[in-house]
Amino acid sequence: MNAALPDVPEVRVVGLPQLTSGFDLVERLDLAMHLKVHGPLEPMAGEQLAALAEQISLKGRGGAGFPFAKKLRAVAESAIRRGIRPVVVVNGSEDEPACRKDTVLINRAPHLILDGALLVAEALGARTLVVGVTRDSTEASMHAALTERGLTNRRGAPLRARVQRNPARMVTGESSALIRSADGGPPLPPGRKVRASDSGVGGAPTLLSNAETFAQLAVAARIGADRYRHTGLHDEPGTVMLTISGAVARPMVVEVPTGVPLRYVLQLAGAPPVPQGVLTGGYHGKWLDGSAVHDAVVSRASLDALGGALGAGAILPIGPETCPLGESLRVANWLAAESAGQCGPCYLGLPAAARGLADILNGGGPAALEALRQVTQAVKRRGACKHPDGSAAFLDSTISAFTDDLAAHVLGSGCGRRVAGVLPLQEAGTAGGGAGGGAGDAPTGQRLAVDWTLCQGHGLCADIVPELIQLGPDGFPSVAEASVPQYSAARAMRAVRRCPALALRIEQEQPPAPRRSNLPVLPPGGGRRALGSGRG
């Protein structure tokens, strides 16, 4: 089974390095080494910086791909209109088990990220900078970088800069969750749709972008738009940071120019010569089948055209010996457990979708497939954040990309392939993992069980804990037992206590006994000084 990725895996580069310059010299570029490798950086006026971002077609590298120049202008206009100084936020919350590119940059080149953030802060006249992280290593590296520049959070400082540490969970990386936590609230999406450019940290207009985006801006500001555009594709110039894992010999982070064939990058990491499929964009991304992989190049447009996604830059191939639906079920269970537990499409819909995929694998037939399609359609555009949408896109892609395997499970007795666990998932409670944030997502090791000799079909349990128990057509629970995630533990106990027939109980889960079957065996589910030496 594929182990969780380390914070800083092997780093490779195709062509000339830009973001990874100096990585061959030292493990971490402190300020002195950073200036030796990259040189000094002069501040730029706001419109000049926006024009640069337009000339290099800079889009957010965290998954959404929003044009950076539009975001910069929107924040500037809002700040001028309201007469409020804006805030700059660097999102370094990389909590997906298959993503490490931002973590690598923060650990090894933190000053390149700060260069971009400080350029923006100077151009906007911001006096507050927040860097969001979720790992011990990224917190330590960024704290050290701020200290090396003489940046603090003290009152009266020209630029107040601080690191915001949040639990490692999928939802904490969502922009509204990071802003909410920076204001002292819980690191969860608030459920209301407010643009950060209008009202973000402290109610001020806030420019929030991904760590790699700021690093790319810093590179372009140093070398100029013309030289930046000499690398990569004409309409998507520059390089991209990718995390390659899954069925590969050497999991790695690689900096690669856009336009390089995807099969070459996979070869570099030791992927199967003819992968059965490649998950692009991470666990909110989409699958490419084997034939599409041959035609794909590293670019947002190419992957989109073939049905994939650049997303958060995670690329995960699987080999021909692996059951793709079984591998996807592991991810679907993890995505369901990552729910914040505060809106129905997430804490009800995602577990239901995972159960639907499990039903397909266990021979549920066409009815199970139709039920899964209905659930994934029902959760879209209804959540408090983008987690339900991204999870639904992943499931939709799974059943679209692997039609032969789907038919084998739906119409026959399964594909006969094993589930090897090649898609990395962080174990609950481990440092830096998505499932170990301690805020509701981790499994409890317990299950809610129904005693059929006592159950009288009152239905109270389905009202109290609907994410675990639903009623069947006969009015009785449709499941005999259900695993209890952390966010449902209190409601599950309440259901046990309030059952009029005393038919519910909490039990400790036991590891499944080995079984012989041709179905896959599934595991359980500032000022300008900050741009220079910083000490002046």
Q: Can you tell me about this structure?
A:
This protein is of the alpha/beta class and 536 residues long. It has 3 domains: 9-322, Rossmann fold (3-Layer(aba) Sandwich), CATH 3.40.50.11540; 324-411, NADH-ubiquinone oxidoreductase 51kDa subunit, iron-sulphur binding domain (de novo design (two linked rop proteins), Up-down Bundle), CATH 1.20.1440; 442-508, 2-Layer Sandwich (Alpha-Beta Plaits). The protein has helices spanning 31-38, 46-55, 68-82, 101-108, 110-124, 136-148, 175-182, 211-223, 225-229, 262-268, 290-295, 300-305, 324-337, 344-347, 349-361, 365-379, 387-401, 403-411, 460-464, 489-498, and strands spanning 10-13, 87-91, 128-133, 160-165, 206-210, 239-244, 252-257, 277-280, 286-289, 314-318, 443-450, 481-485, 504-508. The strands form 3 sheets. It has a 6-stranded mixed beta sheet. Strands 4-3-2-5 form a 4-stranded parallel beta sheet, with helices on both faces. α4 (101-108) packs across α5 and α5 (110-124) crosses α8. The longest helix is centred in the N-terminal third of the chain and has 15 residues, at 68-82. Mean pLDDT is 87; it is low at 428-441 and 512-536.
